[in-house]
């Protein structure tokens, strides 16, 4: 994602987040994140070249690479008659 595609970029561009804690370290934030999660997080090993191409595609389109991966998986499953 480029800086210009994030509407909050200007507001937070000069802030130093070096000492910021991860969401999981703050129980109230972790609970909110879990309540509003739209799916289950998984870990999948991905070939370095494939990931680089996915990230480059995401940067060109202004999307997050996980969103592009999600849509690619949806399209693949829609094309598979046995997956329906």
List keywords for this structure.
single chain, about 80 residues, mainly alpha, Arc Repressor Mutant, 4 helices, extended
Can you characterise this structure?
With 84 residues, the protein is mainly alpha-helical. The chain has a single domain (3-83), classed as Arc Repressor Mutant (Orthogonal Bundle), CATH 1.10.1220. It is 50% helix and 0% strand. It contains 4 helices and no strands. The chain has helices at 9-12, 27-35, 48-61, 65-79. The chain is extended and about 45 Å long.
Brief summary:
The protein is mainly α. Helices cover 50% and strands 0% of the residues. It has four helices and no strands.
- Major sheet description: none
- What is the SS-derived class? mainly alpha
CATH architecture: Orthogonal Bundle
The beta-strand count equals: 0
**What is the name of the CATH topology?**
Arc Repressor Mutant
What is the total domain count?
Answer: 1
Which geometry do the CA atoms define? extended
What is the terminal-to-terminal distance?
33 Å
Average pLDDT rating: 82
Percent of residues in helices comes to: 40-55%
Radius of gyration: 17 Å
Give the ordered list of helices and strands: HHHH
Strand-residue proportion: under 5%
Layout: helices, strands, pairs:
Layout (H helix, E strand, L loop, with lengths): L8 H4 L14 H9 L12 H14 L3 H15 L5
Helix pairs in contact: 3-4
């Amino acid at each position: 994602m480029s800086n210009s595609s994030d509407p909050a970029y200007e507001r937070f561009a000069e802030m130093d987040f070096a000492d910021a804690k991860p969401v999981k370290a703050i129980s109230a934030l972790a609970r909110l994140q879990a309540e509003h999660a739209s799916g289950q997080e998984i870990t999948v090993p991905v070939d370095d070249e494939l990931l680089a191409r996915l990230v480059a595609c995401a940067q060109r389109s202004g999307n997050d690479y996980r969103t592009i991966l999600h849509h690619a998986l949806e399209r693949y499953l829609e094309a598979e008659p046995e997956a329906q």
